[in-house]
């Protein structure tokens, strides 16, 4: 690899090492210092592309407070299946289409923007927490506010709870939309009371979480919901500097016939312009066109604007960071580096699994964190509660178990991604993981621990936790 990059013959490099008394075998890896030495011996100038340099080069210096301007909030709608997430997204969009603009034809690009009282709000058009966590798993946080949809004719359901936990783990404030209030069987008060058990305290229950009763199908109180979002956004004081080169996150991307790689990106800071050289994940390209959620061609896009970008050489992945860079050469350098890094990681993953209790323990030890995060799924709610009670008893002044998420039922992909993003151990009691969850765990290098005896489970966690205690104890 090194020979290749220097355009030298591999045999000459092997010879050089032999002269130094080192015999290289195929598959041997040399460290960066050695590589640098070799490169300069061969008369090459070395420029180190370290992670730090990449971050510095791509994600530039922080903004000065005076350069910051208010930006629209970015909202994700979450909640249980069939509680009306999609209906709500559609209703909000349809009620707020700017008529006449590009024929008023909306196209689904993965996110859209509406205007309320002169203020804009950006909605991520993929309901549910799957996209939300997929992004977080890549280290990108696109969402400022989570709207939690709960059907008033139903109740708080498993995915409602998951959504709450995902939002909380991400530190994203929740607004509750109590939906389907047009139904005769609607009981919004029951929803509010049930939410208490999951530590979501709405205003009328003495808390600070905003809640709005809506009907997505009848279009009731959508205005109020948008107002609540704007109010919450005001509290968050969301700002960005539009006068710099752009950075943001990829919402979705695919290869399209006749258009090439099409990526929907959310600009988070700066202004994206036609002609910009951008890097997105492992891909790069020159921005050929910028298209908004109504099919309109734009010349530029500022903070919190979702747009389709044409011109990338390949499709990046949802959740990848993107940024405008200074030159084509720089873009190549960064993407080549990242592709190499991805290969190295793939190799490293085979070598050792992340996410086992032991490894997590040693990770936590070095980070000095004295909480032991866990995601627990069990066959019935009763056993889950018993396990949590037993684990909570293990807590001391120095270390305690933190239940990121728990519930009854099989281990799902969502559980695994929550474990991944929150660095938690994944535990199943008398339940198994479904195939998708198993595949996700495999891909993320997360070990799922299965138990059928509570004592064994608690004992293992206790052992792992005691490893977290300071040596003098
Ligand atoms: P999602 O799975 O959360 O995206 O839910 P959908 O938006 O697909 O809605 C599930 C079902 O509930 C559909 O049949 C909708 O028509 C219905 N629905 C959604 N919102 C309302 C509402 O406000 N009132 C009534 N009566 N039905 C609704």
UniProtKB/TrEMBL annotation:
Domain Tr-type G span(s) in chain numbering: 70-239
Annotated spans, G-domain: 73-221
Keyword Transmembrane helix: no
Compartments it resides in: Cytoplasm
Binding-site positions, GTP: 79-86, 125-129, 179-182
Keywords: Cytoplasm, GTP-binding, Initiation factor, Nucleotide-binding, Protein biosynthesis
Residues annotated as transmembrane: none
Protein biosynthesis as UniProt keyword: yes
Primary role: One of the essential components for the initiation of protein synthesis. Protects formylmethionyl-tRNA from spontaneous hydrolysis and promotes its binding to the 30S ribosomal subunits. Also involved in the hydrolysis of GTP during the formation of the 70S ribosomal complex.
Assigned protein family: Belongs to the TRAFAC class translation factor GTPase superfamily. Classic translation factor GTPase family. IF-2 subfamily.
Name of this chain's protein: Translation initiation factor IF-2
Gene of this entry: infB
